Amino acid sequence: MITDPQEFYKKLEDAASYTRSKIDGFAPQVLIICGSGLGGISSLISNKIAIPYGTIPGFKTSTVQGHAGELQFGFIGTNRVPVMCMVGRLHYYEGYEFEDATFGVRLAKELGCDTVFVTNAAGGVRKGFKPGDLMVISDHIYFAGFSGSHPLRGPNLEKLGERFVPMSDAYDHSLRKTFFDSARALGITRSIHEGTYFFAAGPTFESRAEVRAIRTLGGDSVGMSTVPEVIVARHAGLRVFALSLITNSCVDTPAPSALEDDPVAMDDGIASHKEVLEYANEASKDVERIIQHAINSL
Ligand code: HPA
Hints:
The protein is globular, with a radius of gyration of 19 Å. The protein has one domain: Rossmann fold (3-Layer(aba) Sandwich). It has a 5-stranded mixed barrel. The two termini are 35 Å apart. 31% of the residues lie in helices and 22% in strands. It has 298 residues and is an alpha/beta fold. Hypoxanthine (HPA) binds next to β5, β8 and β9.
């Protein structure tokens, strides 16, 4: 938790000055955060300048396989929209504090971004969701926040945003429309839903009973990222678009009873990080095309 706002502002300014010194007057407009297996989005960027997280003062590095850990700056699309891309994100389950996991968002704002595109790999909770489907996020459930585990806990950073931030319209309606329009214009046949993302801190995948609970609460997809970044982005006044790539169907059937002899396969459909990366890889080309089109249309 941030206890000293002045100290944090200094840390943010140091990171911003260092980054500015590397990008030579470049002014990013859109921050893109690549989810698990979706680092290929960065291949859309031209005239690229890459800065490893580890070289930026105050920026922590990521430990997860499939999350390289660098900021990339450059242009997307024929309209040459200036972007900043986080290839590799920091998760709360890795042990980072929220302010470290979300540092890139605040840095993006400091560098002039007004919009953020967040992507993630997520489990499918809504019945009928299949691996490889996409879900545009229209709302979220931040269950951890109900008990006070929250990225904005602590003294408010008055220079960045207000104390009480509404989350009722966190996911920008016109950006969502742009994304659907782009998918249509490109003739993408993959199913694209709209729904509510449920943040579960991880790193375990959910139990069967937890999946049923999440569905009952109104979650359509579940994952271990995104919401802390979205909250910090909304605090800073950034417009937010967020997308889940469904990489697995969450197992929701009751655990086979040991009171019966029925030899139900215990591992039927169990989620794994390997499966997450495989599906992300397969769908990432479509995600890249739609994101390129949508950002080019901003
Ligand atoms: N649960 C949580 N996070 C995830 C999942 C899941 O099933 N799949 C990909 N990320």
